[in-house]
Fold this protein.
Amino acid sequence: MQLLAKRDIVVGIDIGSTKVVALVGEIKSEEAVSVIGFGECTSSGLRKGNIVDIDNVAKAIEEAVAKAEQMSGTEIEYAYVGITGSNIASLNNKGVVAVASGDNEISERDVDRVIQASKVISIPPDRKIIHVLPREFIVDGYNGIMDPVGMAGSRLEVEAHIVTGASTTIQNLLKTVERSGIKVAQLVLSSLASSQAVLLPAEKELGAVLVDIGGGTTEIAIYDQGSLCFTSVLPMGGDYITSDIAVGLRTPIANAEQIKKEAGCVLSELVSEADTIEVCGVSGRDTRVVSKKELAKIIEPRAQEILQIVKREIQRSGYKGLLPGGVVLTGGTALLDGMVEMTGEVLELPVRAGVPDQIGGVSDIVKNTAYSTGVGLLLYGSNNESCQRSDEKDSSFNHMFDKVKHWFRDFF
Ligand SMILES: Nc1ncnc2c1ncn2[C@@H]1O[C@H](COP(=O)(O)OP(=O)(O)OP(=O)(O)O)[C@@H](O)[C@H]1O
Ligand SMILES: [Mg+2]
């Protein structure tokens, strides 16, 4: 197997409630990464984004990774791994420091110190910080600064968005990935990754919300003035719709899933009573004819309910009315017929589907809303690697390893 130079390769693993996706990207330049490997495996070891069966998930990761390795002709060692679930919480906090140097020029060390200062919040002992994302820097009272290095000033402040997760959930995730033989380069909040793949810089600047409706979770990420300011993970998604269909039409879950994808629509008034489908019974023998309108009437209230809860979260964020960039809807459930229209009606905002189509390579496979997180992990990883590369021109694999070790220590 041909091994490409380690620093040119980046790997993302999205461990979703319904499937694990491994993507291998080749970093072409600081701005560009192209997909050279893709592997997917269904998984059933997660409930609402939390791992409940380590063995099942580790096997799914192994299988997805093996497929991605084969397609790309590379050996995967490290990966950027998505984290989600109801254990995730986030808050905004401020850090303040005095600029250290005599000539009042702000250095990278000052920026590191102020970011460290923003982490000083009372976090319960059973939680760990996953991300500290600077939203803006303030130098001697002047706000809106994105990169203060080199500026003159005596007082440096940062407004940061801090994402935390439950320690046990993080440890279980790390254990599961390691059991599959992969080392974690970094854990990345799934909605942060999806945002990188589908939100446009102009939308982030204006104020926009990403809504990723997957199988077991619905993730929300709100951007204002270019930075992430609110995140939330709801323990519900498209799997609830599938269960409702299974119960409502008295058919096995696997059938309900197929019917939903092939004939489902969330807006019952758009569906004709005359359009019908055949549904097999729970025993698998008898079949019945059901109108697509009846099917839509089962889907509609559940989709409404999920979106009403999303609406409440947007209200809770305090950014309602401040989102002229609208909603970008992604995740597998965004593919449900009529979902984009219903989202617009319920949230009373402009909505578009977020397809991760700004990436090159063998990427036609990944141009699907279900792969936004996977593609986003590649983009996040590639940005991170490029930053490290320019920070440490002399760096080597060992240096990268030191960084990973350092990052890991925070979690144990
Ligand atoms: N064509 C389709 N039409 C309707 N629903 C679909 C379609 N394709 C996928 N889905 C639904 O999307 C959901 C899976 O979405 P996705 O792949 O984004 O979830 P996941 O990442 O595995 O899970 P999560 O993000 O919740 O942990 C399932 O409920 C599935 O039924
Ligand atoms: Mg997902």
